[in-house]
Amino acid sequence: MRSILLASAAALTVAGGAFAGSHQLSGDLKIFLDTSNPAPRATMEAMIARFQEQHPDLNIETTVIDREAYKTQIRNFLTANAPDVATWYAANRMTPYVNAGLFEDVSDLWAEPEIAENLASTKGAMTIDGKQWGVPYTYYQWGVYYRKDIYEELGIGEPADFDEMVANCEKMIESGRKCYTIGTKWLWTASGWFDYLNMRTHGFDFHMSMARGEVEWTDDRVRETFANWRRLIDLGAFVDDHQNKDWQQSLPFIVDGSAGAILKGNFAVAPLREAGLTDEQLDFHQFPPITPGVALAEDAPTDTFHIPANASNKDNAREFLRFVASASEQTEINNGKNLGQLPVNAMSGVDDDKFLNEGFAMLSTNSPGGVAQFFDRDFPAEMAKAAMEGMQEFMVFPDNLDDILERLESVRQDVY
Prior knowledge:
Strand content: 15-25%
Distance between the termini: 47 Å
CATH architecture of the largest domain: 3-Layer(aba) Sandwich
Low-confidence stretches: 1-21
Shape: globular
Strand order of the largest sheet: 1-2-4-3-5-14-8
Radius of gyration: 22 Å
CATH superfamily of the largest domain: Periplasmic binding protein-like II
Helix content: 40-55%
Number of strands: 15
Number of domains: 2
């Protein structure tokens, strides 16, 4: 293995291995990665080395670019001197590059049973204009992490629907606790609540229509979503002064038991465990239904591989995407020693971790409505920023809703 240092990246050419696959590739394969943190980088490099072992005659050059630099460079390198494979993100985050003709249509891969059947949960997130534009390799669940011991003490359980969620909250407040901790100083935390309330009230397709700018923010259906949110706000469900706390600063409230739960991604589990909560105290449940008949959809931010439209070695790139999408590779790269996240492939195995297992089961078997990418990935940046500011304001001053929605509608008309 030899390293080639570049100005903003480290390029790695992986030497050939001993194992030869049934379908030998030759020529070149140029891969760009944004997985610059140590563990993800090592995971990706090891995966590429395994692919190299299957194809010893293939010359693979891998360039690892700092994640923030990658975001500013991607349009340039997709346009000129494009790699054959590049990492990116699903849904709205890939839309500008699809619309600009810079990503390759890989619908042919999604027509293959191995991908069509086993990666079905994310097909919607990979689809624009009825075509698929990449393959996912990892995601993680969002949901409600709650103090099981406190719920048991109060005689409440995982809610079957939103009315029961509100009733549980009333009992939590009667006990002198808050229902949910949250820190909205970082605005995206509030938008997680909007994602779930909106998808549970009106469904995934409506939520994605909003993300595409097709629904006015002053629409009565949007107001209905905020009305459901206000049921919790008016109860006093959320910790005080949340607008001055970031999400990490909100965690002590669930640790010390002054709040019963938090709506968050699985990344919250490690710090909660480190703070002293045991798996007997901490549990997880899916956000419950609100409108009967609306299929359950989840937030599960998804990282992806794409083939640039200007790639020089598209056949080799397609074979690499098949490899990345395979059950065995997704099991390996997502295990606790590597990414510590969830494989998208439904036939993959998951580390024996309580929360990874629950998340994998939920996303693989109980998210028929679809998988969203999270508000600030699904909505354009300018719209997302304004909306998240409005959501934070709404949580503090819910009577301002009319003004907030009028402002957001004005932004929508400018953005789209």
